[in-house]
Design brief:
Layout (H helix, E strand, L loop, with lengths): L2 E6 L3 H11 L8 E6 L2 E6 L11 E2 L3 E8 L2 H7 L7 H12 L1 H7 L2 E9 L2 E6 L8 E3 L5 E3 L2 H6 L6 E2 L3 E2 L1
Helix pairs in contact: 2-3, 3-4
Protein backbone atom coordinates (compact mmCIF):
# COMPACT_ATOMS: atom_id res chain seq x y z
CA UNK A 1 0.00 0.00 0.00
CA UNK A 2 1.30 3.43 -0.97
CA UNK A 3 -0.32 6.82 -0.82
CA UNK A 4 -0.56 9.38 -3.59
CA UNK A 5 -1.64 13.01 -3.55
CA UNK A 6 -1.64 16.04 -5.78
CA UNK A 7 -2.94 19.57 -6.08
CA UNK A 8 -3.11 22.53 -8.42
CA UNK A 9 -2.77 26.22 -7.64
CA UNK A 10 -0.19 28.63 -6.29
CA UNK A 11 0.20 26.69 -3.02
CA UNK A 12 0.18 23.20 -4.61
CA UNK A 13 3.52 22.03 -3.19
CA UNK A 14 2.58 22.91 0.40
CA UNK A 15 -0.83 21.29 -0.04
CA UNK A 16 0.78 18.07 -1.26
CA UNK A 17 3.24 18.07 1.65
CA UNK A 18 0.34 18.40 4.11
CA UNK A 19 -1.62 15.61 2.46
CA UNK A 20 1.39 13.27 2.42
CA UNK A 21 1.89 13.83 6.14
CA UNK A 22 -1.70 12.78 6.76
CA UNK A 23 -1.29 9.55 4.77
CA UNK A 24 2.31 8.77 5.77
CA UNK A 25 1.10 5.51 7.41
CA UNK A 26 0.44 4.19 3.87
CA UNK A 27 4.11 4.35 2.91
CA UNK A 28 6.89 4.27 5.48
CA UNK A 29 9.67 3.51 2.94
CA UNK A 30 10.00 6.96 1.37
CA UNK A 31 8.28 9.96 -0.08
CA UNK A 32 8.68 12.45 -2.86
CA UNK A 33 7.10 15.40 -4.65
CA UNK A 34 7.33 16.56 -8.26
CA UNK A 35 5.95 19.80 -9.59
CA UNK A 36 5.46 21.63 -12.87
CA UNK A 37 4.27 25.23 -12.71
CA UNK A 38 1.15 25.22 -10.47
CA UNK A 39 0.73 21.43 -10.32
CA UNK A 40 2.34 19.17 -7.73
CA UNK A 41 2.09 15.40 -7.23
CA UNK A 42 3.64 13.23 -4.59
CA UNK A 43 3.65 9.91 -2.84
CA UNK A 44 4.56 7.98 0.25
CA UNK A 45 5.78 4.55 -0.74
CA UNK A 46 5.73 1.05 0.59
CA UNK A 47 8.21 -1.00 -1.43
CA UNK A 48 6.71 -4.13 -2.90
CA UNK A 49 8.65 -4.41 -6.13
CA UNK A 50 11.78 -2.58 -7.16
CA UNK A 51 13.81 0.27 -5.76
CA UNK A 52 12.54 3.05 -8.04
CA UNK A 53 11.79 6.29 -6.18
CA UNK A 54 8.57 8.17 -6.88
CA UNK A 55 7.35 10.30 -8.40
CA UNK A 56 9.13 9.06 -11.49
CA UNK A 57 10.06 11.92 -13.79
CA UNK A 58 11.53 12.30 -17.26
CA UNK A 59 9.45 14.55 -19.48
CA UNK A 60 6.33 13.63 -17.50
CA UNK A 61 5.81 12.59 -13.89
CA UNK A 62 4.06 9.58 -12.38
CA UNK A 63 2.92 8.86 -8.85
CA UNK A 64 1.48 5.42 -8.39
CA UNK A 65 -0.16 3.13 -5.83
CA UNK A 66 -0.74 -0.50 -6.70
CA UNK A 67 0.66 -3.56 -8.32
CA UNK A 68 0.94 -4.44 -12.00
CA UNK A 69 0.99 -8.23 -12.06
CA UNK A 70 2.27 -8.54 -15.64
CA UNK A 71 4.91 -5.80 -15.43
CA UNK A 72 7.77 -8.17 -16.26
CA UNK A 73 6.12 -9.15 -19.56
CA UNK A 74 5.37 -5.51 -20.37
CA UNK A 75 8.94 -4.50 -19.51
CA UNK A 76 10.25 -7.17 -21.86
CA UNK A 77 8.14 -5.85 -24.76
CA UNK A 78 9.46 -2.35 -24.02
CA UNK A 79 13.07 -3.62 -23.90
CA UNK A 80 13.27 -2.38 -20.32
CA UNK A 81 15.39 -4.11 -17.70
CA UNK A 82 13.77 -3.38 -14.33
CA UNK A 83 12.36 -4.95 -11.19
CA UNK A 84 9.91 -2.06 -10.75
CA UNK A 85 6.28 -2.09 -11.82
CA UNK A 86 6.11 1.69 -11.41
CA UNK A 87 9.06 2.22 -13.76
CA UNK A 88 7.43 -0.14 -16.25
CA UNK A 89 4.12 1.74 -16.04
CA UNK A 90 5.91 5.06 -16.57
CA UNK A 91 7.74 3.76 -19.65
CA UNK A 92 4.51 2.23 -21.01
CA UNK A 93 2.67 5.55 -20.63
CA UNK A 94 5.54 7.45 -22.26
CA UNK A 95 5.71 4.93 -25.13
CA UNK A 96 2.06 4.22 -25.85
CA UNK A 97 -0.11 6.61 -23.84
CA UNK A 98 -2.35 6.27 -20.81
CA UNK A 99 -5.21 4.42 -22.48
CA UNK A 100 -2.89 1.76 -23.90
CA UNK A 101 -1.23 1.44 -20.49
CA UNK A 102 -4.61 0.71 -18.91
CA UNK A 103 -5.47 -1.86 -21.57
CA UNK A 104 -2.13 -3.66 -21.21
CA UNK A 105 -1.76 -3.58 -17.42
CA UNK A 106 -3.19 -6.42 -15.38
CA UNK A 107 -3.36 -5.31 -11.78
CA UNK A 108 -4.91 -3.05 -9.24
CA UNK A 109 -3.71 0.53 -9.13
CA UNK A 110 -4.41 4.21 -8.86
CA UNK A 111 -2.07 6.76 -10.38
CA UNK A 112 -1.61 10.34 -11.48
CA UNK A 113 0.38 11.29 -14.54
CA UNK A 114 1.44 14.89 -15.09
CA UNK A 115 2.76 16.32 -18.35
CA UNK A 116 2.67 19.69 -20.12
CA UNK A 117 0.52 21.38 -17.49
CA UNK A 118 -2.08 18.60 -17.53
CA UNK A 119 -2.78 15.95 -14.93
CA UNK A 120 -4.55 12.64 -15.57
CA UNK A 121 -5.98 10.49 -12.78
CA UNK A 122 -6.58 6.77 -13.26
CA UNK A 123 -7.98 3.91 -11.21
CA UNK A 124 -7.81 0.32 -12.34
CA UNK A 125 -10.91 -0.82 -14.26
CA UNK A 126 -12.24 -2.72 -11.21
CA UNK A 127 -11.63 0.21 -8.86
CA UNK A 128 -9.67 -1.75 -6.27
CA UNK A 129 -7.30 1.03 -5.19
CA UNK A 130 -8.91 4.15 -3.69
CA UNK A 131 -8.57 7.62 -5.18
CA UNK A 132 -10.54 10.68 -4.12
CA UNK A 133 -10.66 14.21 -5.46
CA UNK A 134 -11.99 17.57 -4.39
CA UNK A 135 -12.77 20.74 -6.28
CA UNK A 136 -14.11 22.71 -3.32
CA UNK A 137 -10.87 24.52 -2.45
CA UNK A 138 -9.03 24.17 -5.76
CA UNK A 139 -8.44 20.81 -7.40
CA UNK A 140 -6.71 18.14 -5.32
CA UNK A 141 -6.61 14.35 -5.10
CA UNK A 142 -5.41 11.76 -2.61
CA UNK A 143 -5.59 8.11 -1.65
CA UNK A 144 -7.62 8.97 1.45
CA UNK A 145 -10.39 11.50 2.09
CA UNK A 146 -8.78 12.75 5.29
CA UNK A 147 -5.80 14.06 3.30
CA UNK A 148 -8.16 16.27 1.30
CA UNK A 149 -9.97 17.41 4.43
CA UNK A 150 -6.58 18.43 5.90
CA UNK A 151 -6.15 21.08 3.19
CA UNK A 152 -9.72 22.34 3.39
CA UNK A 153 -11.09 20.17 0.59
CA UNK A 154 -14.84 20.01 0.29
CA UNK A 155 -17.22 18.18 -2.02
CA UNK A 156 -14.95 15.10 -1.93
CA UNK A 157 -15.77 12.36 -4.42
CA UNK A 158 -14.36 8.95 -5.29
CA UNK A 159 -12.83 8.76 -8.76
CA UNK A 160 -14.68 6.25 -10.88
CA UNK A 161 -12.71 3.23 -12.10
CA UNK A 162 -10.89 3.71 -15.39
CA UNK A 163 -9.51 6.99 -16.74
CA UNK A 164 -10.44 10.54 -15.82
Amino acid sequence: MCGIAGATGKDAQNSVRKMLEVIRHRGPDGSGISFQDDIAIGNVSLKITGEKKQPITNGGALTYNGEIYNFREIAQTLDLSTDSDSETLFKLIRSKGIEAAIRESDGDYAFAYMENGKISLVRDPAGVKPLYYSTGNGFAFASEKKALIAIGGTDIKALKPGIC
